[in-house]
Amino acid sequence: MSTDLDTQTHLASPQLKPREGDLFNIDAALTEEERAVRDSVRAFVDEKVMPIIGQCYVDGRFPKELIAEMGENGYFGANLPEEYGCAGLNNVMYGIIMQELERGDSGIRSFASVQGALVMYPIYAFGSEEQKRHWLPQMAKGTKIGCFGLTESDYGSNPAGMITRAKQQADGTWILNGAKMWITNGSNAHVAIVWAKTEDNDDAGTSIRGFIVPADSKGFKAKDVKGKLSLRASDTSELVFDNVHLSADAILPKSGGLKSPLMCLTQARYGISWGALGAAMACFEEAVSYSKERVMFGRPIGGFQIQQVRLADMLTELTKGQLVSLHLGRMKDAGTFTPQQVSLAKRNNVSIATDIAREARRLLGGNGILAEYASMRHMANLESVYTYEGTHDIHSLILGQAVTGLNAFGG
To answer: Is 372 a catalytic site residue?
Structure first.
C-alpha cells in the first residue's frame, strides 16, 4: 500500500536533528529552502539589528540605515511575484522572514510588514498594471517607502465609520480631506495607500476606495506621534489631508468597499502571527541562557523548580504557536486558508508571546529592565502588537461569530 505524503511538509530529511529549543523538531517540517531563508534572515538580524536595536529603542529611533539592505535581501513583499521585482517566495518563507525580523524587534518587522502586506499588496491586488509596474519594483528595493492609512482617531476597530472623504471632480480628479492615526512609516513614506469614502452618508462603508497618495502632495502632512512607551524603534505618525488634489489615476481601480482594506489586514495579520513568535523566541532563548549563567544560592537559577516550570510553560506555548503558523502557512500556499483562521493565529500567537516576554523579564530579575537585554523591550512592543491589526478582543468576536454564526459587533 502506498500513501501520498509528497507535500512540502515532508520534503525535509527525517534524520534532521532538532535544534536546541525545538523540542518537536519543527525544522524537519521545513524544506531545505525554507530553512536556508530562515538562517539567512537570522544572520542579518544577528549581525545588523541586534548590536544597535537596544539603543535605537532607548533613543526612539527607527534604524533607517537598514532599509537598503533589507530591500536588497528581498524582505519587502517577499511573497509577491518576481515579475514585479519581488522575491516570489511561498507564504511559509514570507512568514519565516517576519519571524526572524521580529526576533530583532517588532519595529523592524512592522516596517517590512507595512511595506509588503499593507502597501505593496493592495497595489498588486487592486492596482492597475501601470501602477504595479511603477511602484512595486521600487518598493521591493526599498527605494520608495510606503504607509497604510486606514485607522482614524475615532474609528479604530470600526473602520467603516471613517470620516476621510475623497470627492471626484468634473474632470475626473479627486480632492481628499481627512486624517489618519497610528500610521507606521508615515513620516518617512514617499507614498501612502489611503482609504476614503467616495460618497457621503455611507455608514455601511460600501463606498470605501483605496488611493495612492504621494507624500509630497500639497496639503499632505505627517506628524510624528510623541510619548510612545512601546514600538519606540518604529516611526508612528498622524496623517492629515487638507484639500489634497489627486489625479484621476490615483485610485486603485479594483478596490471597493470595506472588504478591500480588510483583505490587506488579513495579509498583515498572517505575517504578525509569525512575527510575534520571533519575539517570543528571542525572549525564551534569552531566559534559557540567563537561567544557566545566573548563580543564586550557590547554583544556576535554571536548576530551581520554579524557573524550570516557567521555562517549560514558555516552551510549550511557543511550540504550539509555531505549529499553528506553519500549518496556516501551508494552507495559505494551498489557497485554502480563511480570514478567521488568520484571526485565531494572530490572537493566539501575540497573546502567548506577550506572556512569554513577561515571564522572561521576570526570570531576569532586576537585569530584565535594562536595554542590554531584549525581554522588556519585546514585552512593551508586544502590547502594541496585541492592539493593532485588530485588537485581541476584536479577533475574539471574529472567532465567536465563526463558531456561533451570530454577529456580536456593534449595535
So the answer is: no
